[in-house]
Structure formats: structure tokens, C-alpha cells
Write a structure and sequence with these properties.
Elements: E1 2-3, E2 9-13, E3 16-19, E4 28-34, E5 37-38, E6 41-42, E7 45-56, E8 59-64, H1 73-80, H2 90-102, H3 108-118, H4 122-132, H5 139-155
Antiparallel strand pairs: 1-2, 2-3, 3-4, 4-7, 5-6, 7-8
Amino acid sequence: MYWQDTQIAVVECDGRFFALNGWNDECFDRCWECSSKDGKRFDSIVGDETYRIWCDENGVRLEPNCFGAKDSIEYMYKVLVPYSGAANSVNGEILRAVLAIENGESYRSGAIKFINSHIDNSEILTLLGSLKDGDMSKFSEFKSMVESHIYAKFLANEFIDNFVDFEDLAD
């Protein structure tokens, strides 16, 4: 195993590279395969499968998760949104920020700032402006549009490293 300069731990298994994600006290249960390594960084995610990875007396163990992602927003959340702390990807942090707005968390202003700086869809930004002004009447529409936007990127394997915790942007 080696650490990348992106703070994402990566393990090599039979010549394949996997970004570790989703530690649940037994294994990393939401890992994804990296297409290759360029120096110490991977360039993209391979496919839409996730894997469980753990280490035991036989070494590093790899097992594909049994569910697919072809039409599952829930799966996307499981892959991109961490159990705690900032997400490894910008798309994951956007979803995490949407959940913070939905739950009325105290870091709402930071969530809005993060989304505003990372989404260029004018319809989403218009709805975000309403949320910023305190009008939550169109939140469901906003959330659905953001999820669709991120899901399209998720299926296209667009992965951009994230180095910002939206909570740090809060007023």
C-alpha cells in the first residue's frame, strides 16, 4: 500500500489499483478501481463497481460489492459521500453539502458557497440562490437537479480530487 499525494490511500492488488474508501471498522467497503497511476496519482475511476477491501493473515483481500449502479442514486451516495469528514471528490462534497442544507445544519452557508463555486448549471444556481435567501420551497427540485447532474458525472467516471471541507467555508 502507498499513500498518494491526494491523501487518498491506494492499494495495489494483482496489478490493479484501488482507492480506499468507507472504513466500517472491519473493511473498506466502498472502494473503487483506479484506471492507472501517473506518478503517485490515479487519473480516473474504472467502471461503476465498488469493492470491499481488507487485510487479513492471507494479505490484502478484494471482493466486489454485490449491487450495481446503473440506475441507483442511492449507490452514488454510498460511493461518493463519506461516513464523516470531507469527501475525497468534489462531487461527493457537493452531495454532502446538499445533505447539510437539507438537514438544516449550522454549516449551511459553507455548503451553499461550496456548491456555488463548483456547479456551473444556471438552473441549479438559480434554485441555490432561493435557498440562500431562505426559501426552501423548491429544495426537492434543487436536490433532484443536483443529483441528476452529479449522477451523470458519476456514470462518466468524472472524478476531481477534493481538498476543501465545505464546513470550513461557513460564516
